[in-house]
Amino acid sequence: MRFTGISFVFHFSLIVGGASLAVAAINLPAIFGDHMVLQREQFNPVWGHADAGEKITVRINGQRATTYAGVDGYWKLKLKPMPAGGPYVLEVSGSSTLQYEDVMVGEVWLCSGQSNMQWSLNQSDGGDMEALSTSNAQLRMISIPHVGSQQKQLDFRGQWECSNKFVAGSFSAVGYYFGRRLQDVLGVTIGLIDNSWGGSSAEAWVPRDVLDAYPRYKDRLDELDEKAATYTDEMHAEITARHEAWKANGRVGKAPPWPNDYRFGQHRPANLYNGVLYPIIGYGMRGVIWYQGEANVSRAENYAHLFPLMISTWRDHWKQGDFSFYWSQLADFTNEQELPQQNSWWASLRAAQTQTLDLPNTGQAVIIDVGEGRDIHPRNKRTVADRLARHALAKDYGFDLACESPRFAEATMRGSEAVLRFNHVSTGGLYAFDVPEVIGFAIAGADGQFHWAQAKIMGKDKVVVSHPDIDDPVAVRYGWAENPVVNLFDRNGLPVTPFHVDL
């Protein structure tokens, strides 16, 4: 970034509560910077602060847009849509002038969620090999640091960077692989914004007033409010000291509590919306990829309402219509079970994620086959990213590509057999991977107890399910467990979506 014109004297103070700014020159938040990527073929908002009433002019690629700063110094304008291209200089001028260099116009995606999105390329399977080919000026990244707050933050510390082994190595592995796949196929510059935070609860990504409007969240809100209200600096220092001593002692014995400050952490409602999302709301983008849910498994019923509420709220506040939103369903985790599970938090959370597909412009990457029972962080991030990329390539960029995992559509009874039909089945039909027998179905009779079912593929898109001791089945499940053993796919290698249905 270069400053031109009159000598530049920078003074910036942010008061988070009142969101006031004192400025002596034009400034923009860190989402705007050298090497940034602007979204092609749509309006791109640009905003910042200056002296009250100051005339602001923004220029790029022969385009000029003008506005005036308000009484609080805030200004905002929109650049007209541009095709992919660059590099350009984005110039912002008023009483002072600044220039952002090496600006590209391409495709922008936000990578958000918790630790499985945050998980870096260096920590992932094949990350060392991938690092050898990460240098790519057409793949650009920016990460937002972890700041949890009950007040809306206007800015963050970060900068756009071109991909190389150092930048990409510490960046989200799912985000990187997703972006690289798009860049390889589309041939345009891809911009990736990472604002993921490990262990984050979905409630933290939603404004507090939105949550307060629904009585169903009151108990959870009250619980976390009490934790925040009773947590002190002294408590945090003591917990931190215990944890550091445990690490210094070679991590021997049971780990003490992690020093997570409830006041500013990733569980407190609205903390992440205010701290890591609000500073970029409105930045032009194509859509969001999301990997979260583990922190909400004990509240699956609420998640079925909360997750679509979160997506809808982001869309409302972004003012960019129903932008694309694609997520990874929870992977398999913990021990496999010899008998069908009667109840499963993880399976219920997956079902809540699937229900969210009722929202427009959404998609789900089913990854029930790539998890690790012993680790909540599966290292195979490339498969996850590719399944997310299928949605983007098919739905946003018009490629004739299978992207939806087969999903249960309807059931009919044929004597004591349940005939299940699936939609989103590719031309090659359903396929039992590894062994001819279809594994993973359970069936229940009038007593409600589930038993492993006999299942066989019929035609392209149907599975016949039965049990020799159940004459009148009342329910069927598939993949209904924390770590189910399943093997039903379509011929593109997309696993069938876990489900429960009452007959």
Mean pLDDT comes to: 93
Gross geometry = globular
Strand percentage lies at 25-35%
- SS-based class: alpha+beta
Biggest beta sheet attributes: 12 strands, mixed
The overall strand count is 26
Return Rg in Å: 25 Å
What percent of the residues sit in helical stretches (DSSP H or I)? 10-25%
Low-confidence stretches: 5-23
Number of helices: 11
Distance from N terminus to C terminus (CA atoms, Å) equals 63 Å
Structure description:
The protein is α+β, with helices and mostly antiparallel strands and 503 residues long. Helix content is 23%, strand content 27%. It contains eleven helices and 26 strands. β22 and β23 form a beta hairpin. The longest helix has 19 residues. The radius of gyration is 25 Å and the shape is globular.
Key structural traits:
four-stranded antiparallel sheet, 11 helices, 503 residues, single chain
Brief summary:
With 503 residues, this protein is α+β, with helices and mostly antiparallel strands.
